[in-house]
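Consider what follows.

. . .
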Amino acid sequence: MKGLAKTGFIGILVAVLLLSATAVYAPGAALCNDGNDNDGDGLTDYPTDPGCSSRKDTTETGTIACDNNADDDSDGKTDYKLNGSGDPGCTGASDTNERGTLLCDNGADDADADSLSDYPNDLGCTGPSDNIEVNGQCDDLMDNDGDTLTDYSSDPGCASYSDASERGTAQCDDGLDNDADNWVDYPDDPSCASATDNDESPADTPASPPQTSQKYIYLYAGEPDIDVNPADPANLAVSGIGPTGSTTPVFYTLDGGITWNRSKSNVYMGGSDPNINYDAHGNLYYSTIDTFFDPNDHEVISVSKSVNKGANFTSKTAAINRTTIFRMPDGSNRTMCPDSNLTVADVDYPKLGADRFIGSPHASNVYVMAKVTYDMNNNSQCDGNEPFITSIVRSADGGATWKDGQSISIGAFMENIGVGPTGNVYLALGSSPATPSDAPPQYGTYICNSSSPYSPNNGIALWKSTDGGAHFGNGTCIYPANASILTRGPAMVGVDPSNANNVYVIFDAYLILNGSYIRVYSIKSTDGGATWSSPVLVDDNATSDKSRARISVSGNGRVDAAWFDYRNSNSTDHKRSSVNTMDIYYSYSLDGGNTWAANVRASNVTARYEGVGNDYIGIVSSGKKAYVSYAQKTNTSSNNDYAYVSTIQHP
């Protein structure tokens, strides 16, 4: 009997416990006393969660706008969520207003003046996190067709705010050269009195080649990079630094730069140091320093992809982050500095490259290069003495996944990734700074040591990969600086699309013997980088500084170059002052870089261009055209960058 009684008691006890457990987790249970964050706002139970009125409360949601389980501002998002899936207007669960500060979530008709406010009402908003309300060419505050008129109802080509194109039907606004004089539409064609003029005739005498025209692209687009689709020469794209919260700092054209459109995206793409590249298949890639990719990573280099010529970006991957393994010159493997030890910048100045040639054995390859910080002295501290080391990674599947990378060199910024028609990859480096104290011995010997007392570490070094970026050989010195021509840092590679043996490098240099001004030089190789020519002057002005020279090679063999130029400026010295003005100048070579043509001013206004947040320009060659992208500031006090593209048309 005692055994039966004991067994019965245990059975009753188990039943009671089961009933208790059922009571705890049954509907109507006290969720404000269960130790769980039931509404995902990062707060748990009474009195911490503002939705809890007592420990007996059966729901953690309350009456506060950002914690009431309601979409108070009708943007499709509800409440504050710790994982970021909630309403972007909520700064916390105690926020009393779901309306935010982003243009598509602030309750105002911003920027586009179309009488529509916010997502989902304003068709220019891709979501409440979008910071630009524009929708199409007639609602984007841009003069897309270059007729000096903007948007509905000012531009006669716009039928409404939702009209996708500012282009009209009149001859002086239709994007066509109706009288075959090489001038198109108002105001470029002298015979057009206005955009509504329906007669471009009589034909006018074309200007002496090359002809240059400038198009305004967008406000808030510093450091614009540019590329042309090798599968469709009328399709170009420009990337820029967008405003905080902008999801699409990319603009594309389908008509050779006559009209421009803002890309759409369902992934965040804003960041700094933007780059843009098409691959051989016409896919478009955008890279940037990204602080939004992963909350556990301080900075990564992300790459977004568009498969429809830039109209939409639908995917994003991390090309370089803290799990990326880099092969070092001594054979060891390292990863970049962790956040916990970070007292210096972890990654900077990324560059993007893609194989653009269908016949290449690496036609699906995409490359990302950046200056990366490592704990080189193994003291578990990433301090101010750590060197930036240029490192590169690659993707062999169109940016879907990224392979382990390798470090290349301590030194100045590498300006680009040059890819040739046979898949060879080239990297060029200008003058190197003094070795940081934490650098190990194998990084202390510079490739271009010079005997000149002026330049112990100046010169141009080159790295080449013949296996699609899997391995780079040792760097070689292709120009050892001397007392006459001292390189000052930036160096950029251009590879001839029609002849893989022709490789060019452009760089800035001081002229010590002939004055202190910075000039632009080029050197070339006709054997795939094995041997190199002597420097040739590119610019034709000896009384002012030049900087940030860029190079590109057209499929017809023409070599194009552009740079910041101080010849018309308030100061001829290159000082990167916030008030110095300058221009963009252009030149070209038709004989393989042996001689360069008279320089052409590519910018319409002498203004502020270079400076912090706007360090470089872009250039791309396509047939008889060259395109130069750049940003200028409106005056000496503004920090707003207005992006432009100048088209240089050759006969």
Summary: DSSP finds one helix and 32 strands in the chain.
